[in-house]
Structure formats: C-alpha cells, structure tokens
Amino acid sequence: MSSTESLTTPSLLSGTSLLSDIRLSMLDLVPTRTGYSTADAIRESVAVAQHVEQLGFERFWLAEHHNIEGIASSATAVLIGHIAGHTQRIRVGSGGIMLPNHPPLVVAEQFGTLATMYPDRIDLGLGRAPGSDQATMRALHRRPEDAEDFPQQVEQLQQLLGPMQHGQKLKAIPGADTNVPIWLLGSSLFSAQLAAQMGLPYAFASHFAPRMMLEAVNLYKNNFRPSATLAEPYVIIGVPVVVADTEQEAQLLATSGQQKILALFRGQSLSLNPPVTSMDGHWLPHEQQGVEQFLSAAAIGAPKQVKAKLNALLAQTGANELMVVTDVYEQSARHHSLSLLAELAKG
C-alpha cells in the first residue's frame, strides 16, 4: 500500500471517535535524562522506536529544535536515517522540519536520500516556526520575515520531490520523483488554512498548544480542497499520554513532564528529571496554572481513564490519528505506558 493510499483509507475518514478505529503514532524529541548522556538519549530513542514498531504504531516522528539543552533532535534528518536503519516497517519522519530554516533544495535532497534508502517509509512534516529563540534564528541566518514565504517554499519542495518536468533546471538529486509525503504542522490557524488549500494532511500540536485545537481542525476540514495527494481531509492530533497500572502511579510518572514544562517557562534546561511525589513546592500558583493549561489535552491515568480521555478528544476533533508524546523518566515505565496504550487501541 502506498503512503497516499494509506492516508485515504475509508474506515479512517468516516469521523469515527473510537480509539480502536484510529492509528497510533509517536513524536519523540530525543529527551536527555538528568544523569545520562546525549548518546544515551539517542540509544533510548532507537529503543522506543523499535518498541512502538512491535506494538503496531504507524509512524515515529522527530522534531527540529535548536539550542535547547535537554533535547537532542536538532539534526533531525540524521536521526530519521539512524532510526529508520534500526527499524523495519514503521514510518519515520519529521514532526517537523522548520522549513524557513533551510533552503527547500537542501530539504528535498536530504529527504530524497532518506526515501531512496528507505522506500515508502519516510514522512516530511513541515512547520514554519524557528524551533528556538531569536539568537538561534540569527545563528541559522534566518530572518523573522522568512516565514512569510512558507507557502511558496512548500510548493517548491513539492515540485522538487515530484516527477521531473521537461526543461526543469533546478533538480533535487536524489529527491526528484521520490514523492515523499508532505504534512503541514501547526499550533495556530495559518497552517490549517494552508493545508486545506493545498489538499495536504494536517497535524495539530495540541501536545503543547491545545487552546486553538478545535478551531484549527474545523477550519482545515471545512475548507479542505481535494488534491492529487489526498482525496479527503486527514488530521493527526498530538497529545501527551502517560498510562500506568494505577492512577496514582501515572500521576507520579507525569511529574517528570510537568517539571520539563516548568523548566521551559523558566528558561532552564529541559533535561528530563526523575518524578517527584508532589509538585507542591516546585511551582508557584501562576506557574502551576500555566503548566496545566499547556498540558490540558493530556491523557494521564490508569487505562480506563486514559481511554475515556482519548475517546472524548477523538469525539471532539474527529481526528484520524493520535501522535503521542510520553515524557516518562524511567525507560521501562515509558515502554510500559506505550504498551498499555496499544492494548487500549485494540479493545
């Protein structure tokens, strides 16, 4: 089955809200754990990709971030190749590449090379944010106004990855005629509108920006124009998920992710810390409110609780696929959480 055919499976486009009727995928930022090295983080990312592949997950995406201590996914295309080389079936891709940071030709060559090495397994998710701060933007030779050309950059990338045209002077080699599937990612309305206009699949980042989730998804679906890529709208929703055998254990494990978001607000290292028995004393009231809003789409708890939360999210959005983020410090507990989630999706 081709990647385009897999996006247009009728059973996934019927608006069903049942967890058992949608696909599961995973987003990984290759988090560095306190007390462990970057090399450890990369090895752990490979291990979790292999684990979710065995569980039947559809795709494993990595995100471009720069100059952020605790996140080791800056060289996104390199890591995609590394993980694809250590897995067999699962689709591996970017969630996403921040396109204004790079010339479209370079992205086409990188992902064309990946698609040549790993046929029909590579996804190219695109965003337009810098993936870091103003100082990093300058280091990347990026200007704030570069994002204004994002629609044109996406079109150029489509052309470079598509069939070679007669008389075409600019060519991605490798890249031409690989037809790497392009996804548009967003946390606001801009990419939702653009994905609808271009007839591309859309992924909303409700794992960190849930406030505009429903508005963005509705805008995308209501304005979708069928294209050669996609006949019907297709939506992925990002969601933080921590499942454990008991609610108490899940809430404990989730404090690692809460500490990470608190550190983000404070401009501190995002290295993942061990869980704590209580966040009381770790945050101020306004910080607690901010973290809870940031994670308001999260599904945390015992299996029945997580299933209820995810089914409610699917009922709200009509999403075709869930892409989970699981920030759990102990890797055995992280793998167990993903296993429990996979079991929920079967029943």
From TrEMBL:
<dbReference type="InterPro" id="IPR011251">
    <property type="entry name" value="Luciferase-like_dom"/>
</dbReference>
<dbReference type="InterPro" id="IPR036661">
    <property type="entry name" value="Luciferase-like_sf"/>
</dbReference>
<feature type="domain" description="Luciferase-like">
    <location>
        <begin position="31"/>
        <end position="320"/>
    </location>
</feature>
<dbReference type="GO" id="GO:0016705">
    <property type="term" value="F:oxidoreductase activity, acting on paired donors, with incorporation or reduction of molecular oxygen"/>
</dbReference>
<dbReference type="GO" id="GO:0005829">
    <property type="term" value="C:cytosol"/>
</dbReference>
<protein>
    <recommendedName>
        <fullName>Luciferase-like monooxygenase</fullName>
    </recommendedName>
</protein>
<dbReference type="InterPro" id="IPR019949">
    <property type="entry name" value="CmoO-like"/>
</dbReference>
<comment type="similarity">
    <text>To bacterial alkanal monooxygenase alpha and beta chains.</text>
</comment>
<dbReference type="Pfam" id="PF00296">
    <property type="entry name" value="Bac_luciferase"/>
</dbReference>
<dbReference type="InterPro" id="IPR050766">
    <property type="entry name" value="Bact_Lucif_Oxidored"/>
</dbReference>
